[in-house]
Here is the input.
Amino acid sequence: MKRALIAFLTVALVVAGVGWLLTAPSTLDAAILPNPKTGNAERGELVFWAGGCASCHADGDAEEEEKLRLGGGDPIESDFGTFYAPNISPDPDAGIGNWSFTDFANAMKQGVSPDGQHYYPAFPYSSYARILDQDLADLWAFLQTLPAVADAAPDNEIPFPFNIRRGVGVWKFAFLDDASEPIVALPEDAGESAGRGRYLVEALGHCGQCHTPRSFMGAGGMIESKWLAGGPNPDGDGRIPNITSSEAGVGSWSESDLAYYFESGFTPDFDSVGGSMVDVQENLAQLPAADREAIAAYLKAVPPIGAEAE
Amino acid sequence: MRISSFRISTSILAAASMLFAASAVAQNTAPIKERQELMESNGDSAKAASAMIKGEQPFDAAKAKQIFNDIHGVAMKFGDYFPEDSKTGNETEAAPAIWEQPEEFEAALTKFQEESATAMEASVEDLESFRQQFGMVAENCKGCHEDFRIDDD
Here is the structure.
């Protein structure tokens, strides 16, 4: 009896220990990171718009220059609680002015804060993990040029059990995929533009975060077999549309229809962009036309998924 | 005790379902259709405008004027079709925010009315000035659709 108890406790302890290790925040080896001195702020501005940083980190009503004041944005009301994107302006107290480039890389690619805590995946590091080294250095350089905002963003309002940050480690262990492999294998004839589009969509644009349904009733990871097939709106009413090339998606849109939508906000039947896509479209309008065309080429090349897949 | 609470809960349930049925039939689809048609008209105007801006059609000053006249006409009427009993039905995409934040909705409408009037009265003699004026008016489409429309496709 006593022996059985000892055996049980030993197993329990090992399971807990392994679980603890597997859910620990892991950080990057600074030696493999690019040299931040190679960062170019001008190129970084395009990374900034492609990444949609302002959509969460600037005020929701911000227009034009105000979108560069990254004091934290509107509350993100999800099924797990209310998230407030933090201040990422260069302010040393309220923002990230005291961060090193390694801190920034760990946040973007590992979802880990400078004090070694997991970030909630409302911050789309599962996409940003795919960012190219040069883009990371360029974005860092651009962020340094922005105005410091002295107001700290409010704390998240997350109820139990989601308020246990270590639990995010379980989520990461279960759902973070291998960021060194693209999500979609493109056909060989897809062309260079679609390859660029893949990077913009899968990494910087983090389009799948809303346009791909999630496992575990919306709490899990993006279901890659339903990549871009649409799903419930994670932050409000309505649905996020299917944007694969099926009939249920954007099958009837030409590449130039898509590119024009990203530029102007008008659909082929001249409805206008709405909801949270308004911010996204305005970000895309800041990119070179070739990048909008690249996203369009990629969307037309991803596997078509029908309405029944929803 | 058990029986009476059961009775109470069934009567609450019955009352609630009657209320629900009443609110479902009370919805007024006529204004919903009216406002949907007005938006269709705006879509036609935007289509005509974009054809000129994209160079698919030559710039035509008379047509440009007509586009702004039509859009302004819609802007002046659109707000009349949101009575309290028109929140659901006929596949409306109107967001609850229209009735929950009436001041914001009103402000967005007023901006649309004023800017479409500005465009209508502006002298639009070439493609570049048309592009500018239309760009200003078109900002109102997404400005309103960002908060006051729910996409349910």
Helices of chain B lie at 2-26, 29-53, 61-78, 97-100, 102-121, 127-148. The first helix of chain B runs from residue 2 to 26. Chain B has one domain: 28-148.
